[in-house]
Design brief:
The protein has 224 residues and is an alpha+beta fold. Helix content is 31%, strand content 26%. It has helices at 2-21, 74-82, 114-126, 151-163, 188-202; strands at residues 64-71, 92-109, 132-133, 143-148, 169-186, 208-213.
């Protein structure tokens, strides 16, 4: 009886596991060991860029806009350019500018009737006082006793004239001056070289030297 019970138990176990051991086609299923690959490992490998050169688009060079002044005459400006070998590498223009300068300080004997002004002028001349008769403009028939840039100097001379019993006053003398400037545009290195060359040839200091990036202007970098 015990043997029969053992055989029945083994048969039951065999019948329970038999479907799992038989594959869909009737053969025995194979057992694989190991784990399934991760999804990330199924992606195409990225190309190896180690050791390769990376090329980026060239950085544009911003030109420098340059202005130097002032020069006394247009001829002086042109002669300065004629002596510059680098001047042929860029277009340099000569600007003419009508500049308003600070007024001078003018010592005057105010305008008088023409005959009175002429008599007084002659009398002042006989005293050896430096003067001249104004013959045109709003101060016509006034007597000029000097023009001064320094207000302090003008006041000092005015006090001296008053001590000489001259009815002098101090007024402003407006003035403008035609001046010239050099203006050009170039790449920064050429601009600096040309500025230094022009300054060396000029032989005196410019009133101003402006070097600034040109607004909204760029040129592609040159390939060697």
């Amino acid at each position: 009886m015990r043997l029969l019970a053992l055989l029945l138990l083994l048969l039951s176990v065999a019948l329970y596991y038999l479907p799992a051991l038989i594959g869909p086609s009737g053969g025995m299923a194979s057992f694989a060991t190991g784990s399934l690959p991760r999804v990330a490992s199924l992606k195409s490998p990225e190309p190896d860029t180690a050791g390769r050169e990376h090329f980026s688009s060239p950085v544009p060079i911003v030109n420098s806009c340059v202005r130097l002044g002032w020069l006394e005459t247009a001829e002086r400006a042109r002669n300065l350019l004629d002596g510059q070998p680098l001047a042929g590498e860029t277009a340099i223009t000569v600007e003419e500018v009508n500049r308003e300068l600070p007024p001078l300080h003018w010592i005057l004997i105010p305008p008088q009737p023409e005959d009175v002004a002429l008599r007084q002028f002659r009398a002042i001349q006989r005293q050896g006082i430096d003067s001249y008769l104004v013959t045109e403009g709003e101060n016509r028939n006034a007597i000029s006793l000097g023009l001064f840039e320094s207000r302090q100097s003008a006041i000092s001379v005015l006090e001296e004239k008053k001590r000489q019993n001259l009815n002098a006053v101090l007024v402003n003398f407006p003035r403008n001056q035609i001046s010239y400037a050099l203006s050009f545009e170039a790449e920064p290195e050429l601009a600096n070289e040309l500025v230094q060359a022009v300054k060396a040839d000029y032989g005196s200091n410019f009133d101003f030297v402006e070097i600034r990036p040109c607004e909204g202007v760029a040129t592609p970098e040159k390939n060697p």
